[in-house]
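Hi there, hope your week has been kind to you so far. Do you reckon you could talk me through the fold, stretch by stretch? Thanks so much in advance, here it is.
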Amino acid sequence: MKSYRKELYFNTPTRRAFINITPQIEECLRESGIKEGLLLCNAMHITASVFINDDEPGLHRDFERFLEKLAPEKPYDQYDHNGFEDNADAHLKRTIMGREVVVAITDGKLDFGPWEQIFYGEFDGKRTKRVLVKIIGE
């Protein structure tokens, strides 16, 4: 069995962002040479997320509104965590959107359903963060 590991780096100019990282993940799969197996992709920071959904701008705006209703950024003093930081909402948003995805690999391709894409979700940006790609298989 083969194993492949790579870290991707992101630094968004805004506090929150959704980035379609499917092309980078597909490039990792090509680099790995693995044709049958599993791909794990996870955010390596507790205020960022990796998830699968549709690449549709209206849906991304809906995510933003939904998350802001559940865990509003402000007022900062509504959160106990915000004694030294102002990012408690980002921790909560990450928990809602998830840490990682696992995708089957079949015939050297990501085994997606219709419209599925992999996204990096940033909830406390403006600094460099990592995403891990780990692929195992033959």
About this structure: The chain has a mean pLDDT of 98. The CA atoms of residues 7 and 132 lie 5 Å apart. The longest strand covers residues 2-10. The chain has three helices and eight strands.
